[in-house]
Design a protein that fits this description.
This protein is of the alpha/beta class. It is 41% helix and 25% strand. The protein has seven helices and nine strands, in the order ββββαβααβαβαβαβα. It starts with a strand and ends with a helix.
């Protein structure tokens, strides 16, 4: 890991951009800490860190106020990373299906999500190796948001993740339901009841499939971007219980 920029935000949070090989990322740490702090990995959709930065920094500042570090890395094929022809084709197929007003086929969902999960999760685990080697970060680790399929796979394969806050709202391949049954990590799942891009029943079925004995579904009225502020506060309380 190589840090490339550093700045103090107006609330004292230290923001550092880094490169993990060719993968860009951002780390935020609290203004002051007397001991190594827990870490929350911030997930995000494949729209690029620059585009997602306002939302990510808001979540990171909230985490820092609770005494946690937060970090994210650029997803494969997104932002300034090299274009990925198969992913571009899958996105184009998805756009055409949505514009035609028809259902999105399982084949399109699989092509769009599964290769991304296969690439992104090993990169997140490598980032976790590098982040936990820093003297200011000591764990435990939580995972928050992003594509829910990435969160599922990460919760299954990464024992250092002790709690996961997942956002229902992205397309989920059928095979991920089987992986969800292997998840035992405590979960806090956010669902927007009227999310125009989400199959509500599929989200409910996925929640039912999770194998975790501690799992909470936080459902709110409203569309994809209408998440109420108190929903974030509830998620913060979930991480406070499990990371402190």
């Amino acid at each position: 890991m190589r840090f490339t920029t550093e700045q103090r935000l107006d609330d004292g949070v230290l923001e550092r951009e880094f490169a993990l090989g060719e993968i860009p990322g951002i780390l935020w740490t609290p203004a002051s800490a007397s001991a190594p702090v827990p870490l929350i990995l911030l997930g995000h959709p494949p729209l690029g860190l620059r585009r997602m930065y306002p939302r990510l920094v808001a979540r990171a500042r909230h985490a820092a106020a609770d005494g946690f570090a937060a970090a994210c890395i650029e997803l494969p094929g997104s932002g300034d990373r090299p274009r990925w022809a198969a992913a571009e084709q899958a996105r184009a197929d998805l756009r055409r299906a949505l514009e035609a007003g028809g259902p999105v086929s399982d084949e399109i969902v699989d092509a769009l999500i599964l290769p991304l999960v296969d690439r992104a999760v090993p990169e997140l685990r490598s980032a976790l190796d590098a982040l936990l080697a820093l003297p200011e970060i000591g764990g435990p680790v939580g995972y928050s948001g992003g594509l829910i399929s990435v969160g599922i796979r990460l919760a299954v394969v990464e024992p250092r993740i002790v709690a996961a806050g997942l956002f229902a709202g992205s397309l989920v391949p059928r095979v991920m339901f089987e992986e969800a049954r292997q998840v035992t990590t405590p979960l806090h799942v956010l669902l927007q009841w009227d999310d125009e891009g989400n199959d509500r029943q599929a989200a409910l079925d996925l929640f039912d499939a999770f194998g975790s004995t501690e799992k909470t579904l936080h459902a709110n009225m409203g569309g994809h971007t209408g998440v109420p502020q108190f929903a974030g506060e509830d998620a913060a309380g979930f991480f406070a219980r499990h990371l402190r």
